[in-house]
Amino acid sequence: MTVKKSVCIYIPLFNEQGNLLEVFRRVEAVVASEPVYEWTFLLIDNCSVDRSQELCEAKAQADARYRYVRLSRNWEAAAAQASFDFCDADAMIVLFSDLQDPPELIPSMLRKWEEGFHLVNGIVRTRHDSTLVKTLGAKIAYRLIEWLAESKMPANATDFRLMDRRMVDAVRACREWPRFTRGLVHWVGFKKSFFEYDRAERVAGESKGTLAHSIRLTWEAILNFSDKPLRLISVFGLVVLLVAVLLAVIYGTGRLLGYPAPRGITTVFILALANIGLTSFFLGLIGEYLGRCFTQAKGRPLYFVEKTINVESGPDAP
Length: 318
Hints:
The chain is of the alpha/beta class. It has 10 helices and 8 strands.
């Protein structure tokens, strides 16, 4: 008797009551076309305050394939770790509940997985919600990450992906905080395949991806995967020192030759303020790294679970 491979579709949600019924309908239509696999749906609720909990609980009670995990509060990025902890399938697919990533592409992702790829990752070709600021900001962010971070993440790579068991276990072993899961997925290595797709409009609700959120993700990606900013501080300090020595030599030589140094109290003030500003910025950057060491040293759990339905395994399963 042939044992079916198991696939888990992880659906993160936070206040997605307007999307959930459509999500359930579309993913069930997709899995019905792939009966050779054993399917489960992992709903991780980041402590929604709308009717999302009610809808998820009703679905899990009516269909045993749905596993519902409600976290104790909004744990933001740490909630993604729960998916790796509670997934016990041979492969996990990440599908956001806003349906901007079409679940109808899942069969093609499965074909790539069967070819031997450990990661099948989507890359956005076009966005229906694109603006000039958003497009330009994304390009700058990816260039900064590529230049500064050690995790080589393709431009416009998204969280819409399939990961096999080995990759799920590898990312699960990384318990760091703050965390940038999208970067960790590419950092762990393994054999990867990418595909392009067009991102659709949101079915309902409002996007959680604000400009401030995007800036913070870029910041986390850089600090979590590189110490290059610290080395750049050293390089900058060395350059400033060399410029200071050069100016001292020029002004000293000029004074010996009878050419006094130029006067200008305004210049002194500007240079002093610039020095204070740069020093404060660099100290703050160093503080960001030290703060991460402090947070990690405390060793606190990344999240806590309030309630589960149809869950038999996991760190907080009954």
